[in-house]
Structure formats: C-alpha cells, structure tokens
Amino acid sequence: MPDTLTITDNRTDKKYEIPIEHDTIRALDLRQIKVKDDDFGLMAYDPAFMNTASVKSRITYIDGDRGILRYRGYPIEQLAEHSTSFMEVAYLLLKGELPTHAQREEWRNTIRHHTFVHENVKKLMEGFRYDAHPMGMFISTIAALSTFYPEAKNIFDAGVRQRQINRLIAKVPTIAAFSYRHSKGMPYVYPDNALTYAGNFLNMMFQMGGAKYDPHPALEHALTVLFILHADHEQNCSANAMRGVGSSYVDPYSACAAAAAALWGPLHGGANEAVLRMLDEIDDKKNIPGFIKEVKDGKGRLMGFGHRVYKNYDPRAKVIKKLAYEVFEVTGKNPKLDIALELERIALEDEYFVKRKLYPNVDFYSGLIYQAMGFPMDFFPVLFAIPRTVGWLAQWEEHILDSEQKIARPRQIYLGHQERQWVPIDKRK
Ligand code: ACO
What we know:
The protein contains 17 helices and five strands. By secondary structure, the chain is mostly helical. It folds into two domains: about 220 residues, Citrate Synthase, domain 1, CATH 1.10.580; about 100 residues, CATH 1.10.230.10. Strands 3-4-5 form a three-stranded antiparallel β-sheet. A two-stranded antiparallel ribbon has the order 1-2. The radius of gyration is 24 Å and the shape is globular. The site of acetyl coenzyme *A has 18 residues, from loops.
C-alpha cells in the first residue's frame, strides 16, 4: 500500500500524488495544484489550527479521544503519583529522561542558585498600583528580565540558553510570590533555598513577620502534584505563542512573557479563575438547572468544561478531583465543592454536553484547591504559569533547534477590496 494521497482537481481533471508521512500531508505539497501556471497554488484554510500540525515534537503526547497525557512517554498519572519532586519532572521535560539521584541533586542546586531576583526587579514590581492584577505584574516582570540579562539574545549558544532556562525556572516562583505580596501590601519574602520548589514558593507567599513558616506537608505535596500536572500540554495556545514568538529568535524572556499573556485569557489558563467566579454566581445547588439552561441557550459557557483536544475526561482533572479531597482533609471542605460536583453530574448526563463531548478539564477542580489553600482567585492563572514555564522552555528550545522550522508566518485568504484610487477628503461620501 503506497503512503500517498491521490488528488483529482475537478477544475482541470489533473491528478496529483502527494506523499503521506506520519498520517500527514505537507501543506506545501498542495501548492503545485493550479488551474493556470501563474496561479499561487492551493492552500489549506485552517483557522485556529483545528487540523494542522505545525511541529514535530518529542515532548508531550496527548490522545484526546482516549484521555491520555504523557510527558516524554511517561503517563501523567504515574508522574503525579510517584514523582515527589517537581524538579524531577522539569528535568524530564527539558532533557528527555528522568534524572538519576546525582543528576537530580545537581539540577536542584543549579535552580536554587538562581531563585533570587535583582533588587531592581523588586523595585520595578513596587511600581505597580496596589490593586494591579498579579498576572499583569507577572507578565511584565518576566518581559523585563530580558533587560537584566542581555546575553539572553544569544539563543544559539547552548550555555547561554541553559542559563536563561535555569534563571526562568528559578525566578518565576519568586516573581509570582512578590506579585501576591504586593497586592496584599505585605513585604516581599526572599527565597529560602533549603526548601523544595513548592515549599519555597509557599514560604514566599505566606510567611508572616519573619517567623519560620513550615508548609503543611500535605499542601506542599498537593502543590507539587498540581505543578506536575500543569507543566506541559503540547501545542496549546500559550505553547504556540512561545514557539511563534520564539521563532523570530527573540530572547526567551520576551517569548515567555508572550506565552504567559496567552495563558491569561479565560479560554485558556484564566479558566480556573472563571470557574470559581461561575460557582460564586451559581451560589446554590438549586440554581444549577437554571444556569445549565442558560449555557445551553448560548448565554455563556460552563467554564472548566470542554477542550480542543480532549473529547473524554481530561486525565489531569481526574487526578485533581482526588487531590481535592486530600487537601480538604487539611483545610476543611471548600463549600463550592458540592456545587461543582452537582454541576459535573448534571452536565455529564445532559444531552447537550454528551453530544459535544464536553467533559471537565484541568481547570474545573484546580481552583477549588487553590482557594482552599488560601490563594486569591485572581492569582490562579499565576499558579498555572509557574510550572508551565518549564513546558514553554522545553517547547521553545525544541523549536529553535528544529532545522525544519522558520519564522512563524501563516498565509491569509484576502477578501478585502481590490486596488482602488485614493479620494480627497472633501470628495468622500
Ligand atoms: N460550555 C458550553 N458549551 C461549550 C463549552 C462549554 N464550556 N465548550 C464548548 N461548547 C460548545 C460550543 O458552544 C460548540 O457548540 P455548537 O457546536 O453548538 O456551536 C461546541 O461545544 C464546540 O465548541 P468550540 O468552541 O468549537 O470548541 P473549541 O475546541 O474551539 O473550544 C474551549 C475549546 C475553548 C476549551 C471550549 O470548550 C471552552 O470555551 N471551554 C470553557 C473554557 C475553559 O474551560 N477553558 C480551559 C481549557 S483547558 C486549558 O486551556 C488549560
């Protein structure tokens, strides 16, 4: 059986044979299909990349129909259950293999060396208004890091590249925590490098008055698992932003800021915040049927439901739902859990959602945990951005080292005016 596709152009009756590789045809192979010699040639129209592979990747695998997610081949459920350290998963995503003891220690120490930020970064953050959204502060500060490390623009120097990767992974928790402390008017807490990645972050968030802060082991564990689950998700909106912006060969701080901006939207990483606002609005289980009816009538969406790729239960949502109960053992149950459970039950039985294969996604339960742990709602996208920085960097490095990639530049179908003549202002209608 030849791995080719035969296309007959009914406009010309010409036949074309196009190679198939990895169940994919190359869009550029369509360009030979023309009516006249001077035609541009056929293009594929695919708004929102619904059926277009833009990269060959070896990092993360998703089978959306079967609800499978793997990092470098390892099922997400195994990583969430057995990896006790986020650094281990970060290493796996970036380097392709799980680290040995020695490699993990060396990697941890490297990251620890970079957790502090320049004092001027702190001053820059102090310049934001008292009520600045922490995600806006996060995005701007990540972009500003490029001015502190001008060497970062040398992206094809492997040593320079690795240093910026280390810096970004180490500094995002610090910047995130500073943005929270700023919004509370509380003094910033400097990193404590004796703690784990998640523990240090919790310490920078919640330490009060200089007293030693011991994160509850169950909460530190829960945050580590949440970080692992959020670390990468192949070619989602923000990874695509990271790759697209990075394809211009800009420094990784600027590309990362663009990726974080993409993450902030309510259809992407901002959905966890939107879920909690939705649960607030519903307020009581008795209001659920009315709310579902409004969604079905096209007045808003059931936030935390549906996914471009998953047409089955998001495997991350399964882990998070279980984790929620472990966290609530410590913090007490989030009262909105019952509304969420009932929403899920009703939606999964309702023909509208069943027919469209809409299942809970990663954001449906994560916000309930974050809230129970004491994080304010507008901070949820920042909590997503911290671990996702690892995924963005893995995707970015793969992209710029891929010899098949060029600057990202889609085509368009132009439907505007053909050439027309300029009209003086007093003659315009
Ligand atoms: N609530 C109600 N209806 C929905 C929902 C939802 N959450 N999601 C999709 N639909 C409906 C659409 O209205 C559409 O119906 P139609 O065929 O009658 O017009 C159909 O399902 C297909 O929806 P699309 O918007 O075409 O699906 P798409 O793949 O473009 O969107 C998305 C995916 C953006 C995630 C969408 O499901 C959504 O908006 N969900 C809510 C926001 C959310 O939870 N985002 C987080 C995603 S996970 C992440 O980014 C980390």
